[in-house]
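Field reference: sequence -> structure
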Amino acid sequence: MSEKELIKQIRKLPSEAQQEAADFVELLTKKYVLKSEEADSSKKKSILENSFRGAWKDREDLQDSTKWVRELRKSRWFN
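Structure field:
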């Protein structure tokens, strides 16, 4: 059945049955579409492909990350 035919059939139904059809489509979407999208997104990506890469590149205070962590620890633990 084509998409147009399916829509035609749904429009012929009473509103209660249309809602039932919509609920069923939502259920199928959760079962099949969302699971496949989750599977795709859970595949390991290279660090170079992640969008956060380079997010802090312009921060002057993080140029020497070891120094930054040391200073942060001093300020939090030794006061």
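Note: Residues 15 and 21 are 10 Å apart (CA to CA).
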